[in-house]
Amino acid sequence: MSGAGVHRGTGRAPCHHGELLQGVFRDATGRRCAGLVTLPMTGTGSRAEFTRRPGTPPEQLTVRPGDRTKAARAAALAVEECASRRREPPCGGELRITGDIPVGLGMGSSTSDVIAVVRAVADSYGVRLAPDTVARLAVRAELACDPLMLDARPVLFAQREGRVLEVLGPRLPPLVVVGCVLGGGAPVDTLALPVPAYDESDVRAFERLRTLLRRAVATGDAALLGQVASAGARRGQQLLCHPEFDTLTDIGRRLGALGVQIAHSGAVAGLLLDPTAPGLRDRIRGCVRALDSNGIPATRVFTTFPSVPTKEFPSGPAHRGGHRPARPDTPRRPARLPAL
Q1: pTM here?
Q2: Which residues of 245-255 are buried (b: 16+ CB within 10 A; e: fewer)?
Q3: How far apart, in whole angstroms, are the C-alpha atoms of residue 180 and residue 291?
Q4: Strands 61-64 and 92-99
Q5: pLDDT tens digits for 321-338?
Q6: Strand 298-303 and strand 311-312: pairing?
Q7: How far apart are the C-alpha atoms of 151 and 139, rounded to whole Å?
Q8: Calpha distance 128→115 (Å, rounded)
Q9: What is the pLDDT of residues 278-322, one digit of tens each?
Q10: ∠337-100-182 over CA atoms, to 5°?
Q11: Which ranges of 126-199 would DSSP assign to H, the alpha helix?
């Protein structure tokens, strides 16, 4: 906070690298609900700064960039929530959002914006919002959200309801991920995707994968996690129909990957490698070369364990010119990650 009548707050949020598993599951009451398990990724995210103006009407809210409609809704909702907690009338203000998450690839760019905004508004009020409150506001702002308001613990998250169905364990098994983009990096309009019509056999299949994923996390079994991610990716492929998917899985088999993972609402994907396997560096290089020779842009290498920082490779035309399209909620041109 700074200045008389001016209260400024900041907020940050990370992104993810698509999903390890997504489908329909049963909650504790036995009710079906959509759920997902994301693959966390550090080093990339959104930042928001909110300056509130007490005494101004709440509709006097300016947002930069001006096309962040979901973030604008999140700001208005967060102002209403925090003002009520402080027993103050809602007010207007100025919101500025920056970030380096490619849009439309299924990395949670809109959720990251929304969460950073909610945290910035709360900071300007001196209010601390619990993760479940942040999730509730995020769902209201964008209809569905990723679990980026939580820590990096693997959770099965009901994205349309903003609640945790299950904490799968303390951390994912150690993995090295060789990231890439399918479809040339063209953004995917998630709202245009058909809603899958799952039947009871699908629910049973997803619940079996959930059980295996829980076991993989509990025992630190990276190979089992790779099998679950691959099975989930194959199911997601039935909806996304990426033409390079079979090539991606073939590269993984030839080079000893534990499995593949994809964004179930985007184009980002990854080969999952065992960090303890001999010749890891050569294996990573082999994956990158194989992807490149098959026209699949490799983007970055990162890990699921925090002791090794995310390694990005900011070179080539995919890096130049910035990451954010002009209209992030409905992108008009391909979104890209830094090329290797």
Answers
A1: 0.87
A2: bebbbebbeeb
A3: 8
A4: parallel
A5: 333 433 344 343 334 444
A6: antiparallel
A7: 18
A8: 13
A9: 999 999 999 999 999 999 999 999 999 865 444 443 323 233 333
A10: 20
A11: 131-142
